[in-house]
Amino acid sequence: MKIVIINSGSSSIKYQLMTMPERAVVCSGMIDRIGLETSNFTYKTDSHTIEEVVPIANHKIGLEKIAQLLLDDKVGVIKSKDEIDAVGHRVVHGGAIFTKTVEVTEEVKKEIDELSQLAPLHNPAHLEGIVVAEEIFSNAKQVVVFDTAFHQTIPEVAYKYAIPNELLEKNKIRTYGFHGTSHKYVSEKAIAYLENHSKIICIHLGNGCSITAIKDGKSFDHSMGFSPSNGLIMGTRAGDIDQSVIFYLVKTLGYTMDEVSSLLLKKSGMLGLTGYSDLRDIEEHAGNGNKDCQLALDMNVYRIQKYIGAYTAAMNGLDAIVFTAGIGENSSYIRKSVCANMDFFGLTLDDAKNDLRSKDIREINTVDSKTKILVIPTNEELEIANQVYELL
How many Å apart are CA 203 and CA 318, to the nearest integer? Predict the structure, then answer.
């Protein structure tokens, strides 16, 4: 079975063409910095590698470029669209409706669209990906894997808000949790590596960031909430903020609700603090003496450390922390900063190990560290492929 995997983030698209059940990757690639003039595009097969810096204005243009190359006479890996048996899509928000992987129907698309108000940076791009894939691969099965599904195990004491009960019962307002495809994949790899260590904190750091307490292999608590906007400081999202700030913006400063939404989701986070949304740029400018960039990095790290402390208390212990996703896997600076002055939690980083680059699971803690510090490359595309294959 040939499956195309489309994994759209808020400013990126990762994609793979895989054969199942062999799990063989025929083609893979990524687009990041979508919406900027300096979008990075990669396309890799066994015989060809294309790397370009090109302006990609939105997810639709990116998806069309991917499809064009898959079918290209010279560098393509399929001769006909009909070779594709299924397309697997990652969708961030499944709300209370979708608790497992499903095949796409008109009703499913309608529900994903309605949930866009809860994930405005993500669900519209996912839906666009589904529509484009239906047009290009018209004979393939379209399947959706939801990020919220993994977090269905969060206990009521953690997912329920301290608001009137009817808002949960009638309107399903609660913590849902996100990046579940990544957290599920990485935590399973960590548990296998550690041989049944039961209390893990998984730190997913990319343009979107989240942290999950995982107890006995199940999601126990999570930094994001009703929508993927709460918790850690992100590329353009503020993360945790006092709700009275919103009232102040509207009632005193005259912002509309749409303007507040745009401010907190698209103009805040690292972008609002520094003028840059990409951590690579921020680290570079901080290294050159930019005080705003350095403070933003310090704030980012401090927020992560606070959550590590809270989740260690909630689980009554900690066996390992795991760094994953673009920043978590590649920024030795962020990893070192997060683990600094965390001796109370048994975290002792080995600087030499931390500076090494690898695509494999690796420990970056010292030999005598009481708590393991792991870097595990996420593979949401493989997790999606597994779930698509199991469903079909």
Answer: 13
The C-alpha atoms of residue 59 and residue 128 are separated, in whole angstroms, by 8
User: Is 5 within 8 Å of 16 (Cβ atoms)?
Assistant: yes
Average pLDDT, stretch 372-381? 93
Only one residue has tokens 């595009």, namely 41
Q: Of the candidates 324, 330, 368, which has an alpha carbon nearest to the alpha carbon of residue 348?
A: 368
Q: Does residue 278 have an active-site annotation? A: no
Tell whether omega for the bond before 21 is within 30 degrees of 0, i.e. cis.
yes
| pLDDT tens, residue by residue, 272-323 | 999 998 999 999 999 999 999 999 999 999 999 999 999 999 999 999 999 9
Contacts of 86 (CB under 8 A, 6+ apart): 1, 2, 3, 4, 140, 141, 142, 143, 388, 392
Task: Return the closest-CA partner of residue 185 out of 206, 161, 202.
Answer: 202
Contact call for residues 90 and 181 (beta carbons, < 8 A): yes
Q: How close are the terminal C-alpha atoms of the chain, in Å?
A: 10
Q: Which of 147, 221, 278, 319 is catalytic?
A: 147
Instruction: Quote the pTM value.
Output: 0.85
Please name the residue that has the structure tokens 């998984």. Answer: 202
